[in-house]
Amino acid sequence: MARYTGPKTKIARKFGEAIFGPDKVLSKKNYPPGQHGNARKRKTSEYGIQLREKQKAKYTYGVLEKQFRNLFDKAARSRGITGEVLLQLLEARLDNIVFRLGIAPTRAAARQLVSHRHITVDGKVVNIPSYSVKPGQVIGVRERSKSLEVVSGALAGFNHSKYPWLEWDQPSLSGKLLHLPERADIPENIKEQLIVELYSK
């Protein structure tokens, strides 16, 4: 499955936010990349602002255009506020849940753990990063993978109480999705209404 594998700092500088996690370069160069990155900014059009927000969401969650569009269409057909439902669908992705549970340090690392068959859902190995986790399902680390350095390193000192929609069980190295998160609980700085407006044109 294709995914973005280019320079992440460049993307983070484009949005002016550490969307892939802590970034030393971003703190030093907090302006867009390129020859004219530090020059005076031109006014961005309304469409440009909306497109930028969609791109930010795609890069943040590691989703490609077709997947993102499919998730939006699903959100639009669902009950509730479309933008909020879209974020909930993104949050319910297996790779994101693995990241939120602290099993992996980044979403990219979480995606790799899932793809390499280190993660289980309700006791069964699932190797599809885009798998949609349902409330009540238990996400765990495969028994033979519990000693992996990337897992133990990520879990060391991780605060499992910061996401109220997830429950963590340390002895079994597993977590449960209690319910889909409310918008106020999702920490990502994404203006989902702009994405809805973009797709509504």
Written overview of the protein:
The protein has 201 residues and is α+β, with helices and mostly antiparallel strands. The chain folds into two domains: 8-89 and 189-199, Orthogonal Bundle (Ribosomal Protein S4 Delta 41, Chain A, domain 1), CATH 1.10.1050.10; 93-179, Structural Genomics Hypothetical 15.5 Kd Protein In mrcA-pckA Intergenic Region, Chain A (Roll). It is 41% helix and 8% strand. It has nine helices and five strands; from the N terminus they run H-H-H-H-H-H-H-E-E-E-H-E-E-H. The protein has a five-stranded antiparallel β-sheet with strand order 2-1-3-5-4, covered by helices on one side. Helix 3 packs across helix 9 and helix 6 packs across helix 7 (107-115). The longest helix is centred in the first third of the chain and has 16 residues, at 46-61. It is globular. The mean pLDDT is 87.
Brief characterization of the structure:
This protein is α+β, with helices and mostly antiparallel strands. The protein is about 40% helix and about 10% strand.
- The rounded distance between the terminal residues' Cα atoms is 29 Å
> Could you tell me the number of beta strands?
5
Strand content: 5-15%
Structural class: alpha+beta
Topology:
Layout: H1 8-15, H2 24-28, H3 46-61, H4 65-77, H5 82-91, H6 94-100, H7 107-115, E1 119-121, E2 124-125, E3 138-141, H8 149-155, E4 166-169, E5 174-177, H9 192-199
Antiparallel strand pairs: 1-2, 1-3, 3-5, 4-5
Helix pairs in contact: 3-9, 4-5, 5-9, 6-7
